[in-house]
């Protein structure tokens, strides 16, 4: 008889495809975009068939010809995942005992243990008896080992049972009726079978070796995503300093005012004191009008990049609340950049960089303050901002990602952070952004916290399985903190290899990276520095090509007083980075995987 997982996968396909007609194998029609607050918002005109955006879309569609309606993929994935879990539990390999319960806290710190769903679904990693050999998921530096033996793979794929043959025939017939090429239909079938093998491996390994289990889960999610996702991984650049001011990229504005101003909050206070409210608003409006223009978007595309990450503060969308010092709303700038990106064929990751109350007390969230605590983060208002963004831009051709926050403080309890992420993903999906159109990024920030959050997100929320097309956001800098300052150049290169191994085990985007290095990491003299920077760039690009969702360099421009490795235009001028590296990035992942 066939292996249970192989049989389950084909039965799922048979049931789903018999019950559902497949009139369309590609994307469903895009929905229209409503106006905000009842105000009329002009919808950008349709992109002509000969535009760069249309060419890029056609290229992506041909590269991802396996696209199925997401509803079909969702039903198949749910059945495969639940069957794999039940099969593991039936053999005694259960992952989470059914009687494990806990008192869960909501994002405000209130007890939610009385909720039936909380009792049924949620636990924290502290409630699980985790053996020593399960504690390290991503810390290993050794080579990743395959989780499925050759015998298992053969057994899972070689059954000639009558039911298997019949299910294969049903699948082939349904796809043929939908006009799917037989070669593509065979690839779809292979993906479904690979999902089943990977899901079975995950549930078998998760009580034995979390590192191997993470690799199996990663493969399962990649096979699933390739059934419905039609876009290339992001190879982009951040537009930092535009809709959330930071001293480096926004130096032209910060340098006009003295007094140790280091964040947008204090800059707004200083500008109002010296210029008055009206002139301060004029100065900020001039910055927003000129910092990023359509010419910038055109140049980004001409470099071979395919995406931009747009950091913005919540006040851009909602206006300042709770007497915050920020100026807004000014959502028209997001409308404008999305229209430009649509015209020039760039994907956009919308990044809620500054949450209400702040996700930390650091200047990247808009306000630097030493007395910040995680309870200051206004989670419900953050969800409202995400809902507004998702509702406004659902169906927009350029928007392929949303980041729910940026660099949350390590003092935010992991349980609180994961609960916010769970609610944020559901909010965005409910607002009309489905997984086959928009990826959702959940910031981890630094890899030191990856083990803890991965375990909680998967074991307590089943997060990657329940929420499709979700990934962690990692910021991989080599210059912050005393440890990095002590490392030599060779150590920096070795760390890129460690990051490469991590990225092969978890769905991720490298949301920020740069070529900034501590002074002692590079040699003396311009020639030696150039050679070192090119080698550092090459090593990082090779590592980040493994990221399932891609990467974004920080930043499009930066202060001339800062290290040139923060400014991608300067890096290209000095030939530390080249256009060929950007355009070859997508194929390098295939070559090295």
Task: State mean pLDDT (0 to 100 scale).
Answer: 80
The value of Rg in angstroms is 24 Å
Got a strand count?
A: 8
Which strand order do you get reading across the main beta sheet?
A: 1-2-3-4-5-6-7-8
- Pick out the low-confidence regions: 1-64, 92-130, 140-167
Overall description:
With 593 residues, the protein is of the alpha/beta class. 47% of the residues lie in helices and 8% in strands. An eight-stranded parallel beta barrel has the order 1-2-3-4-5-6-7-8. It is globular, with a radius of gyration of 24 Å. The relative contact order is 0.11.
Short recap of the structure:
The chain is 47% helix and 8% strand.
Distinctive features:
eight-stranded parallel barrel; disordered N terminus; globular; alpha/beta; 24 helices; 593 residues
């Amino acid at each position: 008889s066939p292996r249970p997982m192989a049989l389950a996968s084909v039965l799922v396909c048979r049931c789903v495809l018999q019950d559902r007609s497949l009139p369309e194998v590609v994307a469903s029609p895009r929905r229209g975009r409503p106006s905000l607050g009842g105000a009329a918002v002009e919808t950008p005109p349709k992109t002509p068939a000969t535009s760069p955006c249309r060419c890029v879309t056609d290229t992506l569609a041909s590269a991802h010809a396996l696209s199925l309606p997401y509803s079909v993929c969702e039903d198949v994935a749910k059945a495969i995942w639940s069957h794999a879990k039940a099969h593991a539990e039936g053999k005694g390999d259960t992952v989470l005992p059914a009687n494990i319960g806990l008192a869960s806290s909501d994002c405000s710190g209130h007890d939610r243990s009385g909720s039936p769903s909380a009792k049924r679904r949620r636990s924290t990693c502290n409630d699980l008896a985790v053996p020593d050999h399960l504690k390290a998921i991503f810390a290993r530096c050794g080579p990743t080992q395959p989780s499925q033996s050759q015998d298992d793979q053969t057994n899972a794929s070689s059954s000639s049972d009558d039911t298997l043959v019949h299910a294969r025939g049903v699948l082939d017939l349904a796809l043929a009726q939908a006009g799917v090429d037989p070669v593509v239909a065979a690839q779809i079938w292979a993906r479904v079978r690979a999902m089943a093998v990977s899901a079975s491996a995950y549930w078998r390994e998760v009580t034995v070796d979390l590192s191997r289990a993470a690799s199996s889960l990663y493969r399962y999610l990649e096979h699933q995503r390739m059934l419905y996702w039609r876009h290339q991984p992001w190879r982009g650049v951040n537009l930092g300093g535009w809709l959330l001011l930071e001293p480096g990229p926004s130096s032209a504005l910060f340098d006009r005012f003295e007094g140790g101003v280091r964040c947008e909050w204090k800059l707004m206070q200083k500008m109002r004191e010296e210029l008055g409210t009206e002139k301060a608003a004029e100065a900020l409006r001039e910055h927003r009008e000129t910092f990023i223009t359509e010419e910038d978007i055109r140049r980004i595309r001409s470099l071979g990049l395919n995406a931009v990450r747009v950091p913005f503060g919540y006040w851009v969308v909602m206006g300042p609340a709770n007497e915050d010092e920020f100026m807004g709303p000014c959502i028209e700038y997001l409308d404008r950049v999305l229209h430009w990106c649509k015209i020039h064929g760039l994907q956009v990751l919308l990044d809620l960089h500054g949450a209400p109350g702040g996700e930390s007390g650091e200047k990247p969230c808009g306000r630097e303050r030493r007395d910040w605590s995680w309870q200051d983060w206004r989670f419900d208002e953050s969800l409202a901002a995400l809902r507004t963004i998702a509702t406004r831009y659902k169906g927009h051709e350029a928007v392929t990602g949303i980041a729910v926050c940026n660099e949350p403080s390590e003092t935010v309890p992991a349980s609180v952070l994961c609960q916010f992420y769970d609610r944020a993903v559901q909010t965005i999906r409910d607002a009309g952004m489905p997984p086959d159109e928009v990826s959702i990024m959940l910031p981890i920030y630094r890899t030191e916290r990856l083990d803890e959050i991965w375990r909680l997100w998967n074991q307590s929320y089943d997060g990657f399985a329940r929420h499709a097309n979700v990934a962690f956001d990692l910021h991989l800098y080599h210059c912050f903190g005393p440890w990095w300052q002590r490392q030599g150049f060779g150590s920096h290169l070795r760390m890129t290899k460690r990051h490469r191994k991590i990225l092969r085990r978890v769905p991720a985007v490298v949301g920020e990276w740069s070529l900034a290095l501590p002074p002692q990491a590079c040699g003396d003299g311009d020639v030696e520095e150039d050679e070192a920077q090119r080698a550092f760039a090459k090593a990082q690009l090779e590592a980040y090509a493994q990221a399932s969702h891609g990467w974004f360099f920080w930043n499009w421009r930066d202060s001339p007083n800062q290290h040139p490795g923060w400014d991608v235009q300067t890096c290209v001028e000095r030939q530390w980075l080249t256009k060929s590296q950007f355009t070859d990035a997508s194929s390098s992942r295939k070559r090295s995987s």
